[in-house]
Design brief:
- This protein has 364 residues and is an alpha/beta fold.
- The protein folds into two domains: 182 residues, FAD/NAD(P)-binding domain, CATH 3.50.50.60; 159 residues, Polyamine Oxidase, Chain A, domain 2.
- The protein contains eight helices and 19 strands.
- It starts with 5 loop residues before the first strand and ends in a 12-residue tail after the last helix.
Length: 364
């Protein structure tokens, strides 16, 4: 960006919330640019391709649930196929004394997944923006209020100016990575620095196999474990079991040298001789993601702060708006919450500009 660039709105972050906000504002006719620090869109929606065309495995956000109409509608409108989470089969309970088989799936609830992976949702939203309105590899380093009517956003490429800025990244990350020059109210700073980052202390492990061998034994792929390193496991397979995969959750602090071997050893104890040799073992430690988790992420544990009232009100004379799943008052932590937060921020901007009736929401 050059110093000549001036926009109606700058959106910081190209995850679900940022892209939803930018898409709505662009559709309403506002000059909007979305800045993303990573080389990709999606944020915590991260999917990896498989040998099955059009089918991917999720290393980040994975599910959506009944009643989450924004994401259901967006997927349908974008032509993104969805399918139901596999539920049939029994659960395994792993304890220090051994493993027990429990009747029925006691871990998974009815939910839905994206055949092409959740990142395809972000790609679809990004496709609604002009190419020049989405800038990757562009981290925001500072935001300054230069007047009651304008904010300046600094990036390594230079400054840009906007009437409104939407922060579509975790609040704690925003306070860690962006210099606000002491312009934010002290109570808002304390809140943002204390708000947990959803999934920020989680490591997701996906073991990709040639076949869903656990289903042949009447197992759901669902596991509770008191020994670890994976604390819970789910069937991550695609429609009709292709691709075949198991998804495990571990606390990020469990990731240390030998982690991969510990995981495959645990899978072998649970599921037998076919389990320790997956075709691919994906390990995604979200706590080490520079553009997701601040260094303090392990100390942020008060989840009652999600959706706090201060996030619902713009700061800096109504020019700085919060939009990430952590700020949502409904479905916080879900993709649905991210879309709701982005929608709220877009409506706030449009209301300020007297254009509220022009907003295109993710529910239309």
């Amino acid at each position: 960006m050059s110093h000549r660039h001036s926009h109606d709105v700058i959106v910081v972050g190209a995850g679900a919330s940022g892209l939803a906000a930018a898409s709505s504002l662009h559709a309403a006719g506002l000059d909007t640019v979305c800045l993303e620090a990573r080389a990709r869109v999606g944020g915590r929606m991260l999917s990896v391709a498989t040998s099955y065309p059009g089918r991917a495995l999720d290393l980040g956000a994975t599910w959506f649930w009944d009643g989450e109409e924004r994401i259901r509608t967006l997927a349908a409108r974008s032509g993104i196929a969805t399918f139901d989470q596999h539920l049939a089969g029994d659960t395994l309970l792993q304890e220090t004394t051994g493993t027990r088989r429990l009747t029925g799936n006691l871990l998974d609830a009815p939910s839905h997944r994206f055949t092409s992976g959740s990142q395809s949702v972000a790609t679809a939203l990004a496709g609604t923006l002009p190419a020049e309105s989405l800038l990757l590899n562009t981290p925001v380093t500072a935001i300054r209020q230069v007047s009651q009517h304008r904010l300046t956003v600094l990036t390594p490429a230079g400054p840009s100016h906007a009437r409104h800025v939407i922060l579509a990244i975790p609040p704690a990350l925003a306070l860690e990575r962006i210099d606000f020059h002491d312009a934010l109210p002290a109570d808002l700073v304390r809140l943002a620095r204390s708000t947990p980052v959803w999934m920020g202390t989680v490591t997701k492990v996906v073991a990709h196999y040639p076949a869903v061998f656990w289903r042949e034994r009447g197992l759901a792929g669902a596991v509770f474990s008191r020994t670890g390193p994976l604390q819970e496991i789910h069937d991550m397979s695609g429609p009709d079991g292709r691709p075949a995969a198991l998804l495990g959750f571990a606390h990020a602090r469990a990731v240390r040298p030998g982690f991969d071997k510990a995981v495959t050893g645990q899978l072998a104890r649970l599921f037998g001789p076919a389990a320790p040799a997956p075709d691919v073992l994906h390990v995604q430690d979200w706590s080490t993601e520079r553009w997701t988790a601040p260094p303090t992420v392990h100390r942020l544990t008060d989840y009652s702060l999600l959706g706090h009232a201060l996030y619902q009100r713009p700061a800096l004379d109504g020019r700085l708006h919060w939009a990430s799943t952590e700020t949502a008052t409904e479905n916080a932590g879900h993709i649905e919450g991210a879309l709701a937060a982005g929608e709220r921020a877009a409506r706030s901007v449009l209301a300020s500009a007297g254009l509220l009736n022009g907003v295109t929401t993710t529910r239309r």
